[in-house]
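hey so i finally got around to running both of the ones u sent me last week. sorry it took forever, my laptop kept dying halfway thru and i had to restart like 3 times lol. anyway pasting them below in the order u listed, first the sequence line then the structure token line for each. didnt double check formatting much so if smth looks off just lmk and ill redo it

first one:
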Amino acid sequence: MITQDAFTSGKSLIGTILDKMVGISERQKVFFIEVTMLFLTIKGKINFTQMGRFSSSPEVRFCNMFKKVFDFLSFNSLFITEQCGDELIVGFDPSYLSKSGKHTPNLSYFYCGETGMIKRGKEFGCLDIMDFKQNRAYHIVAVETPPVKKGDAETGLINHHCKIFTQRISTNKKHSKILIIDSWFNRQKFVKHLTLL
């Protein structure tokens, strides 16, 4: 009974946010709600075949709908506006993801904070909004860090991270003008770029 109430309230919250978004068709709204509920209920590996098994929609529908672009930045931003209070701070942290294999695209060498070493894998810059009244952080967007050349590693990473903030500055400022980042970003070029925004 409690689980059913949670799913019902979750569906209505997601539906409310999708109604506020511009350029989302009714089919996309229904699909997004269905996929979100499937992600919450399917145990183990989630793929198109699994989603087809656990829903009334065929596997092909999931494949076709996932090809369409969805504005997660706007969705997450509207969710935060709806659910959070006024004591918000923007946070940013690059996260290392261990990957191997010859066919994984964009593999490079990145710093892994867990081991304190530079390792082969992928890195994602994770932007979030922290709500101090709720003591929670809400994810806004994750951006994959492109591979950089060894001689250009520091400058290339700083340029990439500056680009992340430049492209999303209006969303960040809408929620908060305070930014918390790792001490690695205490580089003159990065700080100068942020002060110009």
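and the second one:
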Amino acid sequence: MNRINIYIATHKQFDVPNMKGYIPLHVGAYNKDNIGYVTDNTGDNISQLNPFFCELTGLYWIWKNVHCEYVGLVHYRRYFSLLDNFGEIISTDRMLDILKTSDVIVPYPKKFNVNIKTQYWMSHYLSDLLKVKKIIAEIHPEYIKAFNWVMSQKQFHPYNMFVAKKEIIDKYCEWLFSILFEFQNSIDISDYNPYQSRLYGFISERLFNVWLKQEKLNTFELPVVNTDQIKDSNLSYNEDFEFVSYFYMFRHLVDQILGHTKF
């Protein structure tokens, strides 16, 4: 059994980081051509739901089919980076060092000028979020307080990205998919456009934060590097690269001073 596997969700071939423990995972592989990666349509899977569940079909596959001590999920163009060297994709060894004293590695929060409930309403269909709230109240009522708290905030950890012990993620998946499958059975999205049809992915980004809050897990925040604009093999580069690097160094210093390492 491997100690740590970091799965890179992708729907196409890409330049895979030549780094120990990183494994490309073809999500939505159902009825698709083989692109040479591990696929999410083997074993117990929901690969056919990818147009609606996005990278969650990969998460479900990891939950049901992967056996390792630690597991992570990132994207083919989004990776966790280093606090002291923004732009460099973090190694699994550094991740394991962090997880000696933290429960879950998460992205730095995405911030908004409005609260999360309003932001969802501005971008998607608020009725969907309210249906999810009702489902949580019915099957996981102990999470309602955390749900309301997250919806009142102006930031959340985005992208459905994480690294943690597999047993922690298994518990999260059991909770998450119990809600999403109940939600799936209660909604008609036949008139949704392709973007809004990805609602399960959008909602799960918020629910991940609800779960973190309720479980009182010790989180460690890392910046996320977008490799769409790559200059070197392990560096993301754009015109504002130097500014962004200094920003994350400053943010890390402030977090250390204020003790903002927990969600």
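quick thing i noticed on the 2nd:
The domain at 2-258 is CATH 3.90.550 (Spore Coat Polysaccharide Biosynthesis Protein SpsA; Chain A).
anyway thats it, ttyl
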